Amino acid sequence: MKRVNKLPLTSQCHHWTRLGEVPWNLQKYWQQRFTIFPYYNEGIYMTPDAWFGVTPEPVANQIARDLSSIISTSKTTVIDLFAGVGANAIGLALATAEDGSTPRWEKVIAVELDAPTLACAQHNASLHGVADNIIWVLGDSFKFLDTLLNSPENLEDDLQVDVESTALFASPPWGGPGYSTDDIFDLNTMEPYNLDQLHGAYRRMDHALYLPRTSDLRQISKLVPDGSKIDVVQYCIEGASKAMVAYLPATRDEDEDTHMES
Ligand SMILES: C[S@@+](CC[C@H](N)C(=O)[O-])C[C@H]1O[C@@H](n2cnc3c(N)ncnc32)[C@H](O)[C@@H]1O
User: Fold this and answer.
1) Which UniProt keywords apply (predicted)?
2) Which of 6, 12, 142, 244 has the CA that lies 20 to 30 A from 233?
3) Ligand 1 pocket at CB < 6 A
4) Domain containing residue 111: CATH number
5) pLDDT (tens digit, 9 = 90+) per residue, 72-112?
C-alpha cells in the first residue's frame, strides 16, 4: 500500500453552485452546504456519496480539538482511517498544540478506498492550505493497519509509524442514507463494518470512533477496560446531535482476557 500524490478530480467530483445542477436525492444535503462546509463557495468538491457521510466542518474541528486534549501528547501520529472528502483529516492537520503555534500532530495520515473521493479530499485540503501536511493513502484501511502491525517493512518509510505513539480516528460508513430509524442503533448490525470489526482492528491503539448519535452505549461500555473511564461526546449543530464519538483507550491483551473471563 502506497502513499499517493495529488490525484486528478474526475467526473465523479463536483462543486455544485445552483440547485438545478443537484440530483433531487441530494438537494436537501446541498441546501445545508454552508453548515457542512462554511467555506463551500471557496470551491469545495464532493462526490455524490460523500454528501451522506461527510462530517460537518465545525464538528470535525471540535473533534480535532477534543482528540488533542483527550489523547496523550505522547501520541504524535494520527491516522484518519476513512478520510472521505477530508473534513476530519483537514481538522486534524489544522489542530495546534497547547502553545497554539505548533501543529498538534507531527504526522497526519489519511486513508481512503475510493480514488475520486480521495481526490476531493486532497483538493479540499489544498483550499485549507494543508494538503502537503497530510500523507494520503489510497486503499483499504484495514489492510493498511494489518500491514502496519504485522509487516511494517512492506510499507514505505514514512508510513512505518511507531504504533505506541499513534492514535486512530475512524468515521466508517453507517449503512447508507437510511442507516437506521431505530431509537437505539445496534452497532452489531452496522454495515459494512460492525463495532466488533472496528474495535478488533484498532484495539492496540487509542482510537476515536465517530458513530450514529443513538448508538447503544451498552455495546460501547463492553469495550472499556475495567476500572477505566472514557469520554463519549455528542456533537451538535443548531441544537441537534449529528453524531457521537467514543474515545477508546488501547487495550492490552490482559485487559481482553479479563473481559472474556467475566
Ligand atoms: C462516512 S465516510 C467518511 C467521511 C469523512 N469523515 C469526511 O468528513 O468526509 C466513509 C468513507 O470511508 C470510505 N471507506 C469505506 N471502506 C473503507 C476502507 N475499508 N478503507 C478506507 N476507506 C473506506 C468510503 O469510501 C467513504 O468515503
Assistant:
1) Methyltransferase, Transferase
2) 142
3) 50, 53-55, 82, 84-88, 111-114, 117, 140-142, 171-173
4) 3.40.50.150
5) 999 999 999 999 999 999 999 999 988 888 999 999 999 99
Collect contacts of 33-39 with beta carbons under 8 A, ≥24 apart.
35/237, 35/238, 36/87, 37/87, 37/124, 39/127
**Structural domain total, the chain:** 1
Ligand 1 atom closest to 47 (CA): 27
Residue 136 in any domain: the answer is yes
Cα 81 to averaged position of ligand 1 atoms, centre (Å): 7
- Per-residue pLDDT tens for 6-20? 999 999 999 999 999
Residue 191 lies in a domain: yes
pLDDT at 253: 67
Closest ligand 1 atom to Cα of 192: 16
Ligand 1 mean position, distance from CA 157 (Å)? 24
Residue 14: inside a domain: no
Q: Is residue 10 part of a domain?
A: no
pLDDT, residue 150, reads 97
Helical residues (DSSP H) of the chain, grouped into ranges: 27-30, 33-36, 50-53, 57-70, 87-94, 115-127, 141-150, 195-202, 217-221, 253-261
DSSP 106-138: SEEEEEES-HHHHHHHHHHHHHTT-GGGEEEEE
